Amino acid sequence: MKVIRADSLSALLRNESRHLSHWLVLEETGETLTSLYRQVPKLEYEWLFLETPYSDFLKRSPVVLRVSDAIGDLFQAFSQDPRKGISPGIVVASQAPEGEMLAHLRRCLSVAFYGDRKGMLRYYHPDVAAVLFAAPEHVSQAWFGPIERWIWHGEAHPRNSTAGAWHALCADEGETVLHGEPAHAAKTPAGAEPTLALSSGQEASLERYIRVMRAWKDFHQPGESLEDPEAYRRFLASARLEQALGQKSDPSVGLEEPMQSPSQWSAT
């Protein structure tokens, strides 16, 4: 397992040693589908929350789109601005059938942490993906299943204000975790589907991320964004950030109980 980097998404995809299919997983911001249909009137997509404990909240569900010539312009637009453009999101690569890939993405929504606690994880946001996948030594092979690459833009906060590389966490060659045989799963009752568990390293990274985001929420002025270079530079130099990095936090702040309304989910 390794992380590779490139200055552009196209360069990262050209670095693949074999043919892989790619899917966009885009967060629903309230305007995502409207924007997508504006660009691709005959859009084909899947709801990520469908057939999951979160299926009552499809209006807030991320959407999954297979990358093809039909959405070539849309994919290009996403690659140019993967946060403030169409919608924040990530890319996954696989040789598996779409149904198998979707089933795995849906299983990854529910995770266990601190042993027996469970919640829903927004791995489809690039910041959270960076938190989870940037350190391969802390990532279980169970995250891959049929997926061969998790691809995201940028680094976890706090980051260099000029950081803008694309990253891909690549599965070990020849390693595949079959459904029902996860390498890092929480204990579940007999007959129940195993729940993917965060490693201690992922928990620590998530704690740090949560502290930074809380500090930004307290620090920033109305109208300022994390993507505003000047505001972000001031934040990196602030005493509030320094104080936050010396504290501990509970990952449950960044995770949600399975049936909690998405309107209450914390935003990045």
Q: What's the short story on this structure?
A:
Helices cover 28% and strands 18% of the residues.
Annotation keywords:
single chain, DUF4123, DUF4123 domain-containing protein, disordered C terminus, alpha+beta
The H-and-E topology, N to C, reads as EHEHEEHEHEEHEEEEHHH
- Continuous helix count: 8
Main sheet characteristics: 7 strands, antiparallel
- Rough outline: globular
Q: Give the % helix.
A: 25-40%
User: What's the number of extended β-strand segments?
Assistant: 11
Return Rg in Å: 18 Å
Estimate nothing, just give the exact number of structural domains.
1
Strand order of the largest sheet: 1-9-8-5-2-4-3
Fraction of residues in β-strands: 15-25%
Provide the residue-averaged pLDDT.
82
SS-derived structural category: alpha+beta
Segments where pLDDT lies below 50 for 5+ residues?
176-183, 187-192, 256-268
Terminus-to-terminus distance: 27 Å
Pfam families: DUF4123
Organism: Billgrantia montanilacus
InterPro entries: DUF4123
Protein name: DUF4123 domain-containing protein
